[in-house]
């Protein structure tokens, strides 16, 4: 087996093991157990399996400053949801 093939197999096994650990799915209701949003509830919008993180609707909001694209246009500040580590949330009520 070539070195490249071996690396590919190891990466595939790692991804499978991470998916097995990840018990949260898109659409699950969760409660944040640590951090600035502790105790808040929300629904999972996206799951980042390789990073072992989830994005929860309306939680862990950060401000992103956008520069104007055209002349005469004003810059904007948008609130976007940032990922939370999966260990910092637990499944909540349905």
Write the SSE topology.
Elements: H1 3-21, E1 29-32, E2 41-48, E3 53-56, E4 61-66, E5 76-81, E6 84-85, E7 89-91
Antiparallel strand pairs: 1-2, 1-7, 2-3, 3-6, 4-5
Detailed description of the structure:
With 94 residues, the chain is an alpha+beta fold. The protein has a single domain, classed as SH3 type barrels (Roll), CATH 2.30.30. 20% of the residues lie in helices and 35% in strands. It contains 1 helix and 7 strands, in the order H-E-E-E-E-E-E-E. It has one helix at 3-21; strands at 29-32, 41-48, 53-56, 61-66, 76-81, 84-85, 89-91. It has a 5-stranded antiparallel β-sheet with strand order 6-3-2-1-7, with no helix packed on it. A two-stranded antiparallel ribbon has the order 4-5.
What's the CATH topology name?
SH3 type barrels
| Series of H and E elements | HEEEEEEE
Q: How many strand elements?
A: 7
3D shape: flat
Rg from C-alpha positions?
18 Å
């Amino acid at each position: 087996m070539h070195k490249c093939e071996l690396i590919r197999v190891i990466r595939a096994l790692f991804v499978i093991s991470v998916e097995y650990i990840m018990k949260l799915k898109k659409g699950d209701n969760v409660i944040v157990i640590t951090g600035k949003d502790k105790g808040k509830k929300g629904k999972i919008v996206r799951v980042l399996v390789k990073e072992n993180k989830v994005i929860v609707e309306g939680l862990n909001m950060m401000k992103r400053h956008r520069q104007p694209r055209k002349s005469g246009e004003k810059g904007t500040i948008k609130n976007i949801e940032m990922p939370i580590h999966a260990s910092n949330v637990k499944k909540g009520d349905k």
